[in-house]
């Protein structure tokens, strides 16, 4: 492994700046707030910070609608603040990864504003425009946020494509000028010293040559992993990523293993690694997010097995449970009350012992939970508010109480509540009124308490980060699910030429008896979430307590 592949043994920390730390009293987080917490992140031991977008934006989609790629949103600070962050982070050995959105821009971007209502604009072909078909939108494709994916420009009687909000117009990557603009944008930030880029929905950039109705779906099968996506990524990688040695992680929407093997191939021609989200649909009842349902444990394990074995030796994946779009995992798959710390540790171990690069979402390392809001007025997420209106008021498919239970499980606001720093007002996040209500358990669940407790979730994550650097089999070992059909236990093996690692996780509050082959010249526990283990010497037969995890390292 070369120094340029530092990310293979690294752990990356995701910051959602709006909710991380407010350096003043405005109620939203900012760059100076991040700087003030760098010592904390250094203590945790993370190698890099991934920042969700901090560019100029009207914030229709929390910054994923970029209006100016070359400036910092005043809500977060100034370019001087960003340069200061780079300097202070690097002085602590922490790299910076920027979130970049190049599938679409905000409709407030000057390119789109020039193109709107003007077929002669030099920027008209930066976007995808189509004439009406039978007086209606060009296709029946659906936006990811609901409704048709085409919006009409009345002045020219043409529609533009928006796979997301109507304020997010899709770029036309067929136009070489667009690709050149993307190269210049990314180069600008790389020249500043940014170490890498997280590329939002990057597998959607290549659209089909012909736009036709989808008679069996919402249109995604026509543009997901599109016809020229690999060609485009190789072009950008050759011109920019490889030039600057940038680490790159692609967010892959509704993708396949075959494509991800190519996106993250070890020849480095496209991306360093990929995010896929298949495992986070294990609690989608019949594929529908907006339901309250238990997670399908056997399906979850099968999905991990598919991706772990499929990428091994061919590509590289990102390991994660949480992000700014997903509920808190300890509330989603664990037990956020009686067994909050134990289940938080178990869930962390269950992904950190796999092959890939782990991502920690802010607050995950202290076991933050969903806020368990009781009123729709407490929510700020546009998707959640829209779905409440559709399902309760328009379709009348569920009652208000039922919908609040669904949101309690599935809303994106579950992860966007302010970071809980201490027991003071607003959890130490702001001196003003927070933009989103803090979870009510902040006096118990906060950074101050975690750092002062040697057995806290924080120090468990700290150990996970160090184990990845110290034990080679975590990075290089093959993956094998030892108990794919077990109803309670997730037990897998990692193996290389010299060692086996057995990762054992009880996903439920039941007591479970299991037996595992620990044959080897020597074996030792390297990670436990219960401190009173019955023997320091691993035994093949063991009784697992609620949410217990054990990781055994075996020398061959």
How would you summarize the topology of this molecule?
Elements: E1 12-15, H1 31-36, H2 38-44, E2 48-51, E3 55-56, E4 68-72, H3 79-91, E5 95-100, E6 104-106, H4 110-115, E7 129-130, E8 150-153, E9 158-161, E10 168-170, H5 176-192, E11 196-199, H6 220-223, H7 229-244, E12 247-251, H8 257-263, E13 273-275, H9 297-311, E14 318-319, H10 329-332, H11 340-352, E15 357-361, H12 382-394, H13 400-410, H14 413-416, H15 447-451, H16 457-470, H17 472-476, E16 478-481, E17 489-495, E18 499-506, E19 512-515, E20 522-528, E21 541-544, E22 549-555
Parallel strand pairs: 1-2, 1-15, 2-5, 5-11, 11-12, 12-13, 14-15
Antiparallel strand pairs: 3-4, 6-10, 7-9, 8-9, 16-17, 17-18, 18-22, 19-21, 20-22
Helix pairs in contact: 5-7, 8-9, 11-16, 12-13
Folded structure, characterized:
- There is one protein chain.
- By secondary structure, this protein is of the alpha/beta class.
- It contains 17 helices and 22 strands.
- The strands form 6 sheets. An 8-stranded parallel β-sheet has the order 13-12-11-5-2-1-15-14, covered by helices on one side. It has a 5-stranded antiparallel β-sheet with strand order 16-17-18-22-20. A 3-stranded antiparallel β-sheet has the order 7-9-8, with no helix packed on it.
């Amino acid at each position: 492994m070369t120094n340029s592949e530092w990310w293979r043994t690294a752990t990356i920390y995701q910051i959602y700046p709006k909710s991380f730390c407010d350096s003043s009293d405005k109620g939203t987080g900012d760059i100076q707030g991040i700087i003030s917490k760098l010592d904390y992140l250094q203590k945790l031991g993370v190698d890099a910070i991934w920042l969700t977008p901090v560019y100029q934006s009207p914030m229709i989609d929390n910054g994923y609608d970029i209006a100016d790629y070359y400036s910092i949103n005043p809500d977060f600070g100034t370019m001087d603040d960003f340069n200061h962050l780079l300097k202070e982070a690097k002085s602590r050995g922490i790299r910076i990864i920027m979130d970049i959105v190049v599938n679409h821009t905000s409709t407030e971007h000057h390119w789109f504003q020039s193109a709107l209502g003007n077929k002669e604009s030099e920027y008209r072909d930066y976007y995808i425009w189509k004439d009406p078909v039978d007086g209606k939108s060009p296709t029946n494709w659906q936006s990811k946020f609901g409704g048709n994916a085409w919006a009409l420009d009345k002045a020219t009687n043409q529609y533009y494509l928006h796979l997301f909000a109507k304020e997010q117009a899709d770029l036309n990557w067929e136009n070489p000028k667009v690709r050149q603009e993307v190269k210049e944008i990314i180069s600008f930030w790389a020249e500043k010293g940014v170490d890498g880029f997280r590329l939002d929905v990057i597998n959607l950039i290549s659209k089909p040559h012909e736009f036709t109705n989808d008679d069996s779906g919402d249109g995604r099968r026509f543009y997901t992993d599109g016809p020229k996506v690999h060609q485009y990524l190789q072009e950008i990688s050759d011109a920019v990523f490889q030039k600057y040695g940038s680490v790159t992680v692609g967010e892959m929407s509704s993708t396949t293993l075959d494509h991800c093997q190519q996106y993250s191939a070890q020849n480095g021609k496209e991306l360093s690694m990929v995010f896929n989200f298949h495992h986070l649909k294990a609690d989608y009842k019949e594929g529908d997010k907006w339901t309250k349902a238990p997670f399908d444990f056997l399906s979850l394990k099968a999905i991990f097995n598919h991706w772990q074995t499929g990428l091994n030796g061919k590509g590289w994946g990102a390991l994660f449970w949480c992000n700014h779009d997903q509920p808190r995992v300890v509330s989603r798959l664990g037990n956020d009350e009686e067994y909050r710390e134990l289940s938080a540790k178990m869930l962390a171990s269950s992904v950190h012992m796999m092959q890939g690069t782990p991502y920690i979402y802010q607050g995950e390392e202290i076991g933050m939970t969903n806020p368990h809001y009781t009123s729709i007025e407490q929510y700020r997420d546009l998707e959640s508010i829209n779905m409440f209106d559709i399902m309760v008021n328009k379709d009348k498919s569920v009652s208000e109480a039922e919908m609040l239970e669904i949101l309690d499980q599935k809303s994106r606001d579950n992860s966007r509540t302010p970071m809980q720093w201490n027991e003071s007002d607003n959890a130490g996040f702001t001196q003003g009124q927070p933009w989103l209500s803090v979870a009510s358990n902040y006096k118990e669940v906060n950074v101050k308490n975690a750092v002062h407790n040697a057995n806290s979730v924080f120090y468990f994550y700290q150990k996970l980060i160090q184990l990845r650097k110290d034990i080679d089999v975590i990075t290089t070992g093959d993956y094998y699910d030892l108990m794919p059909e077990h109803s309670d236990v997730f037990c897998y093996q990692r193996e290389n030429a010299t060692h086996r690692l057995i990762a054992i996780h009880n996903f439920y509050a039941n007591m479970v008896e299991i037996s595992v082959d620990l044959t080897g010249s020597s074996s030792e526990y390297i990670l436990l979430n219960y401190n009173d283990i019955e023997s320091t010497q691993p035994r093949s037969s063991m009784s697992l307590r609620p949410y217990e995890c054990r990781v055994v390292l075996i020398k061959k």
